[in-house]
Amino acid sequence: MIRLLIADDHAIVREGLKQLFALTSDITVVAEAMNGGEVLERLRGGGIDVILLDMAMPGISGIDLIRRIHNHDGAPPILVLTMHNEPQIARRAIKSGVVGYVTKDSEPEVLLAAIRRVAAGGRSIDPALAEAMLFESNAASEQPPHEQLSDRELQILQLLAKGLSVNEVADALAISNKTVSTHKARLMEKMAFHSNAEMVRYAVTAGLVE
User: Fold this and answer.
1) Is residue 45 part of a domain?
2) Of 177, 104, 83, 187, nearest to 145 (Cα)?
3) Do residues 136 and 89 make contact, with C-beta atoms less than 8 angstroms apart?
4) Where in the sequence is the domain holding 184, given as residue range(s)?
5) How many domains does the chain have?
6) What is the DSSP letter of 70?
7) CA atoms of 134 and 87, how far apart (whole Å)
8) Which of 75, 116, 185, 190 has its C-alpha lying 20 to 30 A from 142's C-alpha?
């Protein structure tokens, strides 16, 4: 039996997933979490074979949460289930250590197959996304501008673009507001942003925020 932790801040999504898994004979949901803090708390209890993770939850989330999960001894494999189907976001997630990446518009069979493959020690990427990643040029000149940002800078860009203040970003990431301001200044310089409005427009256009 594959013991699953579902991490998603939307209750209706969690309930829908539980109904799907209830129809299987080899997958059971043993824990749920609606934010990054709860994910880390549930991990301390053990007994989890796979984490099904939404990358866009309140508080600790995304690449930062993935790295914190990996800091746990014997951390289970992470399968991302997300709305983001952009190749560059998937690449960052995979680079940070996830072993599977499925988008929420995938067919149920694709998700079930991914869970089983990840639980067995394999890797799984949404087929349509894998194709997009395969054919996407790796030439630096053709990469989107935000690819030059560090993971932390990109994370802060996304949070600021969602409307969070510097202090709110600092609280969400458990870092100082001075550190946030420093990263913000660097990313503004790298991206040649002259205002917060430009930053928000870019993030929305590039699909970095929902």
Assistant:
1) yes
2) 187
3) no
4) 141-205
5) 2
6) H
7) 9
8) 185
Return d(Cα 72, Cα 207) in angstroms, integer.
31
Cβ atoms of residues 191 and 201 within 8 Å: no
Q: The domain that contains 197 carries what CATH number? A: 1.10.10.10
The Cα–Cα gap between 177 and 165 comes to 10
Between 145 and 27, the more confident residue is: 27
Phi-psi region of 109 (alpha: psi -120 to 50; beta: other; left: phi over 0): alpha
Whether 36 maps to a domain, the answer reads yes
Q: Tell me how crowded residue 178 is: count the other CB atoms within 10 A of its CB.
A: 10
Q: Output the six-digit token pair for 170.
A: 């600092």
Could you give the C-alpha distances from 168 to 81, 141, 147, in angstroms and in order? Answer: 25, 34, 24
Rounded to two decimals, the pTM is: 0.69
pLDDT tens digits, residue range 115-149?
999 999 999 998 878 877 776 645 444 677 888 88
Shared domain for 15 and 52, answered yes or no, is yes
